[in-house]
Amino acid sequence: MIALIEGTLLDSSPTRVILLNSGVGYEVFIPLSTYAKLPRPGQRCRLLVYDFVREDTHTLYGFWSEDEKDLFALLLSISGVGPRLALAVLSGLSPHQIREAVISGDTERLCRISGIGRKTAERIVLELKDKLGEDEMLESGGSAPAMMESDQRARDAVAALVALGYRPGEARHMISGVVGNIATDATVEDILRRALIARK
Q1: Which of 60, 98, 150, 152 could form a disulfide with 28 if both were Cys (CB 3.0 to 4.6 A apart)?
Q2: Which percentage of the chain shows pLDDT scores above 70?
Q3: In terms of residue numbers, what domain contains 58?
Q4: Contact 79/57 with Cβ under 8 angstroms?
Q5: CA separation (Å) from 7 to 4, 23, 27, 106?
Q6: Residue 104 belongs to a domain with what CATH number?
Q7: Is the pTM of this model over 0.85?
Q8: Does residue 77 sit in the same domain as residue 135?
Q9: What is the pLDDT of residues 61-98, one digit of tens each?
Q10: What is the C-alpha to C-alpha distance for residues 138 and 125, in angstroms, rounded to an integer?
């Protein structure tokens, strides 16, 4: 399974990109939130990938952040929600806004997304409340989440914690608690050490 692709961005549109890696061009479908953060064509680009495989299809979906990828996977686990609809949700709302809608039961906000009807919105709210962990539900806006999105070290630290067995939401919560106070020259190992010490 493909989990990440890093290469040269050959072409991009609001719904898809082509990444060149080792002589192979990968077509990867993306949400608008990822498109807004892409570099210019010809530059290096790194995307987290959800490898969607079924009997009759093999499609790659790319995301700028682990948060987007995690929510995409959760949305796919909801009955009646396929990849296109999951991308539409992530294109219409940020991960934080999706959590806000779920926490408050704001189905009207979800219904404003193209392709989302009332029944689907109600199902998303109901099932995501069960699937999202407490740490993920409590994630809020502010400087720490913004740094989590922009700082590659923080994203790598989250990935390292997930590899150690922490839930994605729990890992993000741990790193966001320390990322606002780290030095500019701190390494991923420094961030991990502080996060693990703070958790004790």
Answers
A1: 60
A2: 90
A3: 4-63
A4: no
A5: 10, 10, 12, 39
A6: 1.10.150.20
A7: no
A8: yes
A9: 999 998 899 899 999 989 889 999 999 999 999 888 88
A10: 15
Residues 43, 57: Cα–Cα separation, whole Å? 29
Angle at 74 between CA 31 and CA 96, to 5 degrees: 60
Taking only the tens place, the pLDDT of each residue in 164-181 is 877 777 777 788 878 777
Q: How many helices (H) and strands (E) does the chain have?
A: 11, 5
Residue 199 CB coordination number (10 Å): 13
Q: Who's near 62: CB < 8 A, 6+ residues apart?
A: 5, 17, 19, 28, 29, 30, 34, 47, 48, 49, 50
Same-domain check for residues 72 and 137:
yes
- Same domain for 74 and 58, yes or no, is no
C-alpha span between 53 and 35 (Å, rounded): 23
